Amino acid sequence: MKAKYAIQELSRLNPDEEIVIAYWDRQWFINNFGNDLTDEQWEEITDKCEAVLEYAGLGEDMHAAAVEALDELAELAEMEND
User: Fold this and answer.
1) Closest Cα to residue 42, out of 58, 24, 57?
2) Which helix (H) or strand (E) is 34 found in, with range?
3) Within a 10 A sphere around the Cβ of 12, how many other Cβ atoms?
């Protein structure tokens, strides 16, 4: 994803709202793998990473984690009301 699209999406949010977000930029890869990247190499990395994230069902995992957290909160609230 181009940063401008992420910025556009984030600009629609309330700045004080808590969110869950993860991203990796070119500098992160350079810092962690120790060599500079050409534009072509960086494009190949981003394409492959986006494909892996989509294939891995990351959105589904996040949904499951959110449902689990909500269930735990509901159980705690129920225990407090008993």
Assistant:
1) 24
2) none
3) 6
51-69 burial, b for 16+ CB within 10 Å, e for fewer? eeeeeeeeeeeeeeeeeee
Token pair in block for residue 56: 């891995």
User: What is the helix (H) or strand (E) element at residue 78, kind and residue range?
Assistant: helix 58-81
Higher-pLDDT residue of 60 and 1 is: 1
Task: Please give the single-letter amino acid code of residue 25.
Answer: D
The answer to whether the CB of 20 falls within 8 A of the CB of 37 is no
Report pLDDT digits (tens) over 16-70: 999 988 888 999 989 988 888 899 999 999 888 888 877 776 667 777 877 788 7
